[in-house]
Amino acid sequence: MNKQSEKFTLAGGAGNIECVLDMPAQSPRGVALVAHPHPLYGGTMDNKVAQTLARSFVGLGYVAVRFNFRGVGASEGMHDEGRGEADDMAIVLEQMRARFPSLPVALAGFSFGTFVASQLQQRLIAAGEPAERLVLVGSAAGKWAMPEVPTDSILIHGELDDTIPLAAVLDWARPQDIPVIVIPGADHFFHRKLGHIKNLVTQLWRRTDQSSL
Q1: Which residues lie below 8 Å from residue 161, measured CB to CB, with a gap of 6+?
Q2: CB hemisphere CA count around 17 (13 angstroms)
Q3: CA torsion sign, 44 to 47 to 51 to 53?
Q4: Structural domain of residue 101, as residue ranges?
Q5: pLDDT for position 2
Q6: What is the pLDDT of residues 111-150, one digit of tens each?
Q7: Less crowded by CB within 10 Å, the N or C end of the chain?
Q8: Are the C-beta atoms of 21 and 65 separated by less than 8 Å?
Q9: Which one, of 169, 127, 178, 129, lies nearest residue 149 by Cα?
Q10: What is the CATH number of the domain that holds 36?
Q11: Intra-chain end-to-end CA distance of the chain, in Å
Q12: In the chain, what's the furthest Cα-to-Cα distance?
């Protein structure tokens, strides 16, 4: 993806965790962890939506870190219905905070990865150390018990998603009063719509930056 990419492994609770880190061209302003879709349905850190999220963050000046959940690729262990996967993501987060101690960390996920990232954010909030912000694409509402998320989370969904229907995501987001950005004509995997994801994440992140000045 990037000339400044680094592949490495971390010791996790179920064995090694396979990771890839992409550095921005400039001095990094933050770190973003990206969680991939369901491993039992072919999800890996090389999924196109996960890669698009990573590219979006690199373009914003973030170090983007993707990793394979336990039992995927060179990551060891077995699928754990999201519990162990959240543990894996927490270990990656801990290592990135140690490596880049002065930088904020954002969390992102696609499909099943939104469930994992949301669980981790819930843990971090309880510990008083929340991530900077969440980006959830194809949120897994109705498929898994999605927790509540901060109101500044970015939620993006496809209008024609028949894996996780838009109505289920709206039902989850409505009581939290969080807007859901709908990409017209997009299916679950955002075929031919990946550029919209990148543009939306970039624009919304920069808009937040400007409003905080």
Answers
A1: 138, 186, 187, 188
A2: 28
A3: negative
A4: 5-211
A5: 52
A6: 999 999 999 999 999 999 999 999 999 999 999 999 999 9
A7: C
A8: yes
A9: 178
A10: 3.40.50.1820
A11: 32
A12: 45
